[in-house]
Amino acid sequence: MTALSYVSEDKHSPWATHLAQVDRVLPYLGELSRWADTLRHPKRALIVDIPLEMDDGSVRHFEGYRVQHNLSRGPGKGGVRFHPDVTLDKVMALSAWMTVKCAAINLPFGGAKGGIRVDPRELSKKELERLTRRYTSEIGSIIGPQQDIPAPDVGTNPQVMAWMMDTWSMNVGMTSTGVVTGKPIHLGGSLGRVKATGRGVFVTGKVTAQRIGLELENARVAVQGFGNVGSVAAELFSQSGARVVTMQDHSATLHHSAGIDVAALIRWQQQHGSIAGFHGATTISHEAFWEQSCDILIPAALEGQITAESARKLVCRMVLEGANGPTLPEADDILTQRNITVVPDVICNAGGVTVSYFEWVQDFSSFFWSEDEINARLDKIMEQALLAIWQKSEQLAVSLRTAAYAVACERILTARKERGLYP
Ligand code: NAD
């Protein structure tokens, strides 16, 4: 393979994690492995400068990205992240995981991702709107309903998607709702989208619990991240009789062995902006999160959180990867050796992109489905995809992650092979 000149040399970087995951699946790809280098080269990586006039009249410059990793199976699909730690390397890895995720679930999309290196909490609403609109204009030539369809990720939400949709629509001279997903409902958004990723985490957890003989009633759950993904997953597990015993966000780590009242914690967060100071649990140290005994661990914050060190300490039966790329490759090996079942991100958190696909289909047909219909279709797709991957993992005697990559890469590389190379 030809090394890319623009990637970091850090062997723990998200892109390095992606490359290691590709290496692990190679032995199972047969003659398709001839095309595997396509997974090691993003198709397109755009870096843009975003000059922003601040409310005080000063001008600041921000770095933005949109990476289309692979478009063999359809238009690009992937979120937009506003976070101070966004780098090209991370966006590349996140776009590659989208390629694999869409193929693992069998959605007709390729993989893409975008982001701006910014802390959105430091901006006023007007500044955030101007930043979003300028970013959308800068990447406007490579996105579109048939080209590449952004969606929310960390630090972005339906309002940001509404601004992106409006900006792109203004630039092309017509209202185009299908250019982004995760929009507000009255702008062509889909019912069920906001909770879809957390719901998918719960559904894959329920199926896995059955497979490994774990009762959900009273099962102890620990969740890192109380945002869009983590809070919904915590809520659904708690509603199904499990106890959310440990909860961490950027501000605090909470513990309560009888189970945290998740509904009360959601109300607290809405009022205070974070979980810090919540009265219904004990505050413990940030590092102690990984040492708390539980049955189900849900990393739902950022990538690279489960290191070899934390993997040795974990006391749990399964890990549900709500976040993208939360487990480093050597930590993955340790979890496999320790017989801890890991439901990989590319399946576990695919609920969001699945309902994004439903949203895109509904926008094209201008015909909208009920929430019950959406949830029923989502649950069925997630259950079937996970069961197919369990089957593959048993057939190949590999982890669920390698099995998910095997299923996905077969689809991606078959498309690559059948399309052939142009010219
Ligand atoms: P979010 O911004 O809504 O929430 C992120 C949460 O992580 C917040 O509670 C924040 O406090 C917490 N956090 C941040 N840094 C932390 C740290 N150092 N330690 C502990 N907690 C920390 O983001 P989200 O949309 O819930 O996304 C979370 C993860 O799920 C990301 O990896 C994202 O890529 C992935 N994901 C999101 C979606 C989606 O539909 N939103 C879909 C698929 C995957």
TrEMBL record:
Residues 190-420 form the Glutamate/phenylalanine/leucine/valine/L-tryptophan dehydrogenase C-terminal domain. It comes from Candidatus Pantoea communis. Keywords: Oxidoreductase. The keyword Lipoprotein does not apply. Catalyzes the reversible oxidative deamination of glutamate to alpha-ketoglutarate and ammonia. SUPFAM superfamilies: Aminoacid dehydrogenase-like, N-terminal domain, NAD(P)-binding Rossmann-fold domains. Belongs to the Glu/Leu/Phe/Val dehydrogenases family. This is Glutamate dehydrogenase. It catalyses: L-glutamate + NADP(+) + H2O = 2-oxoglutarate + NH4(+) + NADPH + H(+).
